[in-house]
Amino acid sequence: MKKLINSILTAVMLVSLTTMTGCGEKEINPADYVNITYTGVNGKGKANVTFDVLRFSDDLVANAPEKKQDALTQELMTMKLDDLVTYETNKETELSNGDTITVTLDWDDTPIKKDYKLKFAGENTVSVTVEDLPEVIELDAFDPEIFNVDLDHKGVHISVDGISPNLSVTITNDISREDVRSSLRYEAEFVNGYANGDTVKINVTSYGLDKDLYALKEEVGTLELNGYDEYINRADQLTEENQAAMKEGAAKAYEALMTGRKTIWDDWTYYYRTENVSNFTWDKIYLVTLKNGVSKDMYGLYRNLIFMTYSYDINGARFGSLDEPRNYEDVCNLVYLEDAYVNGEGEIQLKGKEFKHIYSYSSDVYMSEEEMYEAMRQKLFEEDDKYNITEIDISSWNE
Questions:
Q1: Which residues is 282 bridged to in the sheet?
Q2: pLDDT, mean of residues 300-307
Q3: Residue 343: φ, ψ to 5°
Q4: Is-cis flag, bond preceding 325, omega within 30?
Q5: pLDDT-derived band at 274, boundaries 50, 70, 90
Q6: I need a surface site. Which of 56, 80, 243, 384 has the fewest CB within 10 A?
């Protein structure tokens, strides 16, 4: 009987000791409040680690002695989580299926252990294995099936307008809406200022796509520019065929000028007839092109100008009905082209403009050589420093 009583007393004492220890300090494991999730695609996954501070605080208060719960509540409001628990994650980005995300905690229960009978205990790591991340879907923005296709097909349409070296590039995405690439944005590095032989850099960006799910195979593509109309900007571009066409056009302009003077100005202030002109001579071509770094603008700076000068003698020109006829030698005049260019067949195109004459302000009948140069300078808006001027001898036109 004594042994049984002794056994019961021993058991009661053990229970009492256990109860006293349990009432003395409650154990809480901060690792229980760590949440680990991940998103993204295989190879580019991202970890999201959070600590449930609210639930952690509520459990601390609930496990504290009842009389001290209000005091702990107030104290926790002035604390930071870092005062009690900190944690680190071994890998947060570039996650692949099979990777292990491990969160390691470090804690300090000193601020709450003595006064509130709480202690931190248990395993201080939490691990999750990454699985079921989808594969990245690669998008080919420059697939020839959809890139730079003609207007009869859905896809990326590229329009090249203007004349080299002032070509402009416009890119429109008209890919079918069922294709996620319809949200891609294509932009040429520069809108205009391109020339034949240039390589256009095309940048692609995505809007509205889930970047965690889709990836561009290439973000930059290129387009070669060749075979477009180009401005005449070098003397060697003026072929014999070009010069023949220019001579024909300039001659027609001259004949129209003379015909007009004969039929309209016979009884006006001054006139001279075609039969009064002798020693007609083609002199030079002045090829005028903008210097490098000077852009064409809407206020008069042309890509190029071509002046063709000629001279002649006048016998018996009248100025006023009472004036005696006068004779002049080496009278100068000129015709010009604006924005002349060469097309793919090597022919000079005038953009719808005709060969035109330039007159001086001092006389519609003739120009001195000085007046002719001043007339050219006025046509350049007196900004001849912005141009390169090349002289081409066309005396062979007179043969």
A1: 310
A2: 72
A3: -90, -175
A4: no
A5: low
A6: 80
